[in-house]
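On clarity, I found the account of how folds are encoded harder to follow than it need be. For illustration, here is how one protein appears when written out as sequence plus C-alpha cells:

:::
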Amino acid sequence: MDGPEPVVLGPEDGDISPSGRVRDRFMLEAHQTGGRFALVEHRFEPHSLAAPMHRHAHEDEYTFVLEGSIGAVLGGREVLARVGDLVHKPRGQWHTFWNPGDEEARVLELISPGGFEQLFRDLMTAPVEDPADLAVAGAAYGVEIDMDATARLLEEHAGLFEP
C-alpha cells in the first residue's frame, strides 16, 4: 500500500498538552498529511485567551466550534462563534480568539498547509512567559505578534480573562 496508513482516533487519543489554560490535542500533523494540513483540537478553560493578536504569513486556519463559544477578532472585527459555527482566519489577517464563557470550550482547528502546529508543540514543551520570547518563537514560523493590540483587547474586556 502506498501513502500513509489510515488513522482512527478516539475522543482522548492523540498527544494532548498536559496543562495550560488552552490545551492542544494533536490529531493529525503535517508529517502525517504530506504537509497539506494539520488538525488540532484546542480545549479552552473558561475566560481564556488562546494567543496574543497575531497573523500568519503562510497558513489559513479554519476553526469549527464543537462545544461552548469562542470570541474572536478577525481583521479588526469582533465576532462570537457558537457550536456548529466555522471561523475562517486567512493568512495575513490579524486575529486572536478566546473562550468568553463560564464552561470549557472546544474547537477543531484545521491549519493549511500544515507545519504551524509545531509552534504549539514547541510552546507545550518549552512555555514562554516573556512576550519578546514569544515573538521570537512565532517569527520562526512566519508569525507576527502585536502585543499593543493584545493589551487593548485585554483592556476592552477587563475582567473577562482570568490570569
User: Anything to note?
Assistant: The CA atoms of residues 24 and 42 lie 5 Å apart. The chain has three helices and twelve strands.
